[in-house]
Amino acid sequence: MDFLSDFLTLFLAKLQSPTLGFLIGGMVVAAVNSRLTIPDPIYKFIVFMLLLKVGLSGGIAIREANLAEMLLPAAFAMIVGILIVFIGRYTLAKLPNVKTVDAIATAGLFGAVSGSTLAAALTLLETEGIEYEAWAAALYPFMDIPALVTAIVLASIYNNKQKQRRAAEEQLSKQEYLSKQPVASGGYSSGQNVAAGGRPKKQQVERVKVWPIVKESLQGSALSALLLGLALGILTQPESVFESFYEPLFRGLLSILMLVMGMEATARLGELRKVGQWYALYAFVAPLLHGLIAFGFGMIAHVITGFSLGGVVIMAVIAASSSDISGPPTLRAGIPSANPSAYIGSSTAVGTPVALALGIPLYIGLAQALAGG
């Protein structure tokens, strides 16, 4: 009971944080149809600055870290990213009136990582004085890329199977039609696609090329900014500019980003209504479930390697997040048959607010309760 009481107290306290306050404020501003707008170039610049700062801090830490300590958390991040996509494939895709390719794309977006949600979590961890490995932010690509690749591969396999099934049905229909027609002398073949015994030949399966998917992910603006920061942090000595410029601006820029995301979440509610209640249910439950799964893997790393509880929280948060910048264009290119309103609407209207307002306080409160115990 003491554990539960401490956890609930800590959880409620997180909901009153300034970061989450700006998110809720943005949602309220949009709900009352305010004309307040934040230009898109400013939003993109803020995201770039935040992720570059996160990358720099991670790169500086990696330069001084024992790389062996990173192996298990990185492996777990990859496993969680792939697992999230399979969970969506065999849960959301099975619900009524949900198209399989739309479900796979949605699961891929929820398996990918939101840089802004990660930045919010890092700020709250620092506010609470919870220590974490600075390189933990580098787990981002280990979860993000495998999730996107897995989603696109699964969607391609599914689409190929559907094409084969349709082709087989067409060939069988054609064969049945021809069998009812009189055969003239020197009759004709029923088609090159029909094998001996009247069965249609299997269509050649198109191979999924993985490298273009990885390349597309690496070239995304969010991941590029993070990787650039990591490279600069590892290969150069950016401490002076980091402490004098990036560090002081971080929380102010993050507050504006949360305001924009709150406004965007409310604006996307209309898109979510188009694709039905099942996506809303998935988008509410999935971030919390994914985060708890990652939290469990993180605790295994905590026991085995001494991975900090703050690092466990970061792993849970990136699992709970859904990509808001690099993921949508990657999925548009990789799964063009999927409906963007389904996966983008689910993510921005429900998934991201749940991850920010409920997920981050939940995992931080859980980590603090465990530390107190």
TrEMBL record:
Species per Swiss-Prot/TrEMBL record: Acaryochloris thomasi RCC1774
Keywords assigned: Membrane, Transmembrane, Transmembrane helix
The keyword Aminoacyl-tRNA synthetase belongs to this UniProt entry's keyword annotation: no
Transmembrane spans: 20-38, 45-62, 74-92, 104-125, 137-158, 279-297, 303-321, 342-364
InterPro entries for this protein: Sbt_1
Domain of life where this protein originates: Bacteria
Protein name according to UniProt: Sodium-dependent bicarbonate transport family permease
